[in-house]
Amino acid sequence: MKLKNLTIGQKVLIVFSIVVILATLSFIHLLQKTYNSALVNQGRSISQEILIFRKWAAGFGGLWTMNKYSPDTGYLMEVESDSGVVKAFNSEETLGNLSNLHFYLHNPALATRELSKLSNVEYGWSFKVVSDRYMAKESKPDSWEKKAISVIKKELPSGKDEFWSWDGDKFRFAKAIKVKRACLKCHGTQSEIDPTLYKAMVAKYGEEAVRRATGYKEGDLRGIISVTILPPGVLSTALNFIDFWNIGALILAFLIFWYFAKREIITPIERLTKAAHDISLGKLDIDLGVRGMKEEEVKDEITKLAIAIDRLRASIQIAMDRLRKKR
């Protein structure tokens, strides 16, 4: 369809529709960027909290739980005692005695794994520690995590230690784990690891796995914290922001635009078109409503056009009067 076959009103509606569509697409793009930024901040916050927890746990040699552990995760070492004396902090007073004690050691990796299971149940997101030199099978990276490790390894010298992207309907965030001094207790060279602890790791993970996951130096990339978030889609998030006031404001904006276009553009052009048509048929006694106005005193282009057409009408009328007199 050619534009010349459309009325001014139809053209205005088409332009308005295009503007609304482009504005909507721009809004969705802005919402997507804001949404991604919020998810990145959430992933960054989660990973930083886990790093702090792991640093704390490693600094104290791991976590010991009394008489209880998670069967599917297990533990690294166990300490048994028939009895134990109970004392309060900063006190030598004996508060009581405990019998048949069992303490289970959870290194930072095991503790992190158990926290991840709890967070997945409670909050709908999960995290885990993975490495290309993994010790436990659960720490073996998937395809996305392999890519994240590869990217972080390349960009780590420049100071960038994060990677994120969408993986289907999941938002995934990776944070580098650098080897600290406390990490060498489990992941340093064999001479740096306590022999008892080394034997316990071999018993749990196997000789090959322990060799693969040890031999690090301080500052090396140990692996990544991989955070997986299952957020609602952008569209559903946008719909949550739309209410009666949003729809009402959009309708009001359209009505204001249409009123202005109709009053200031469409109706004046229709009037000028009819006037030009009448003038072409010799009807010169028409009033365009601009008599007495000077073109240099107005800025509205349509009003200037009306003044010019009225001047043309007057010129034609003068010419017709002179022609009649000559006859």
UniProtKB/TrEMBL annotation:
Keyword Transferase recorded: no
Residue ranges of the TM segments: 12-31, 244-261
InterPro entries: HAMP_dom (IPR003660), Tll0287-like_dom (IPR021796)
Keywords: Membrane, Transmembrane, Transmembrane helix
A GO biological process held by the record: signal transduction
Gene3D superfamilies attached to this UniProt entry: 6.10.340.10
Domain of life of the organism encoding this protein: Bacteria
HAMP domain residues: 263-321
Pfam families associated with the record: HAMP, Tll0287-like
Protein's UniProt keywords contain Nucleus: no
Cellular-component GO terms for this entry: membrane
Protein name (database record): HAMP domain-containing protein
